[in-house]
């Protein structure tokens, strides 16, 4: 059993400020700076971020939306906690809890943490001990070690995946030089299962973001995602960002869908009961000033793996309010790619231009993107996620964009900002699941 304690003197309660706006469509709340919630060294480490993963995990909007009797979209699902590690302890920062920081006497090289997996609030901390090449998973509520795993190869990237990615259970994604592995620590045989092979085209490239999307149409333990979106760059700085699509549990024939883009994510605007492939949203540089956002369907080809269809809709990002801004990024463990973060929830596409501190939310209705709201946040955007935002009047839904911003001297401090976005729950799209799940010869 792992003994876990909390050093309350090291953390202070988070106090939300008065909302910045009272508009019916958006509500912005800023927390206290991280350095006023945790020690300054911990605040700097939170901004720098954990190794080989993103602060909040990454986009989940290309998967089936999960609503069950034991786990709903309310609560802390979709935007992960941040874990920072040292030789003797690990700090888990939960941005929406008071106190937000909790210290565990677990030394590790890095750690990632799951969502709350049930009504009892079970959370699983996956720690990597680089010196021993060992993984250890702790259940934080019961203070127990669940399983240990001896690694035989280098870990290039890892993240927690939502349960619908594989069998509606706890899933950690482990990416090595060999390929991608789903690790289900709660299974009777908790051995990582390889779901795709890396291949020569992806060897030696740094993975900066990873997500999965689609659904095979099966239920329960047989449910699986259909494909992965991998954003990579060359090991050296200043090289373009590439986007690759990889089938899950198939022949692993990777397809490079772009060799020079600013950001991308998977997007599933409709709830469907059949097998489906998601849409893909990309941010591209039109010229030296303009950025375009476009939505494209994905097709499953029997001969050439995944095919990207014709653009359904595209638009130019309105940057007039921030065109003179260019915030300098802090030192980040994962670097500054992608330049544009994109997260999706239901029919919302939320794009964030990091160096401009700009958030834009679009609704995808009838095959078109329509601007819902935009917010200039005045600081560099370190990372972001989008989740369920609470209940609103009938006919409306609410999503919450959670962002970590850099602030303070030399950007060694940060601040959590929450943007609530109200949107229409009756929004429809003319792109049906059957339109983009069919196989193409």
Radius of gyration: 20 Å
Into which percentage range does the β-strand content fall? 35-45%
Count of alpha/pi helices: 2
- The tally of beta strands, per DSSP, is 29
The percentage helix is under 10%
Global mean pLDDT: 86
Distance between the termini: 54 Å
Large-scale geometry? globular
Major sheet, described briefly? Answer: 6 strands, mixed
Runs with pLDDT <50, length 5+? Answer: 1-25, 68-75, 432-441
What kind of assembly state do the chains in view correspond to? single chain
Structural class: mainly beta
Can you put this structure into words, describing what you see?
The chain contains two helices and 29 strands. The strands form seven sheets. Strands 17, 18, 19, 20, 21 and 29 form a six-stranded mixed β-sheet that branches. The chain starts with 25 loop residues before the first strand and ends with a strand. It has 441 residues and is mostly beta strands.
Summarize the structure.
By secondary structure, the protein is mostly beta strands. The protein contains two helices and 29 strands. Residues 1-25, 68-75 and 432-441 have low confidence and may be disordered.
């Amino acid at each position: 059993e792992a003994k876990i304690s909390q050093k309350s003197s090291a953390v202070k309660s988070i106090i939300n400020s008065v909302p910045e706006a009272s508009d019916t469509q958006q509500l912005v709340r800023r927390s206290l700076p991280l350095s006023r919630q945790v020690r300054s060294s911990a605040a700097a480490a939170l901004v720098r971020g954990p190794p080989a993963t993103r602060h909040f995990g990454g986009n989940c909007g290309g998967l089936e939306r999960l609503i069950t009797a034991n786990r709903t979209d309310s609560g802390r699902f979709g935007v992960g906690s941040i874990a920072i590690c040292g030789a003797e302890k690990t700090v888990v920062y939960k941005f929406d809890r008071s106190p937000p920081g909790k210290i565990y006497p677990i030394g590790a090289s890095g750690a990632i943490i799951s969502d709350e997996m049930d009504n009892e609030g079970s959370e699983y901390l996956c720690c990597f001990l680089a010196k021993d090449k060992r993984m250890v998973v702790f259940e934080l509520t019961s203070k127990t070690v669940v399983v240990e795993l001896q690694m035989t190869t280098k870990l290039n990237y890892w993240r927690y995946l939502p349960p619908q990615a594989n069998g509606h259970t706890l899933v950690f994604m482990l990416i090595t030089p060999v390929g991608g592995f789903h690790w289900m620590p709660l299974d009777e045989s908790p051995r990582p299962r390889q779901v795709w092979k890396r291949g020569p085209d992806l060897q030696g490239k740094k993975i900066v973001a990873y997500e999965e999307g689609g659904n095979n149409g099966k239920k329960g333990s047989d449910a699986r995602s259909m494909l992965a979106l991998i954003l990579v760059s060359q090991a050296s700085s200043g090289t373009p960002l590439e986007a690759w699509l990889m089938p899950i549990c198939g022949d692993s024939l990777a397809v490079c869908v772009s060799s020079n883009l600013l950001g991308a994510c998977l997007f599933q605007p409709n709830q469907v009961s059949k097998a489906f492939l998601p849409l893909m949203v990309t941010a591209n540089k039109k010229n030296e000033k303009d950025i375009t956002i476009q939505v494209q369907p994905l097709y499953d080809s029997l001969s050439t793996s995944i095919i990207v269809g014709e653009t359904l809709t595209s638009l130019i990002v309105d940057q007039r309010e921030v065109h003179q801004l260019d915030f300098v990024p802090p030192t980040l463990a994962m670097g500054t790619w992608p330049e544009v973060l994109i997260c999706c929830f239901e029919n919302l596409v939320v794009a964030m231009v990091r160096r401009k501190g700009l958030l834009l939310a679009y609704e995808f209705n009838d095959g078109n993107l329509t601007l819902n709201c935009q917010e200039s946040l005045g600081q560099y955007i370190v990372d972001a996620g989008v989740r369920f935002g609470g209940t609103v009047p009938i006919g409306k839904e609410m999503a919450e964009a959670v962002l970590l911003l850099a602030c303070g001297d030399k950007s060694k401090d940060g601040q959590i900002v929450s943007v609530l976005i109200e949107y229409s729950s009756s929004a429809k799209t003319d792109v049906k699941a059957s339109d983009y799940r069919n196989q193409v010869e």
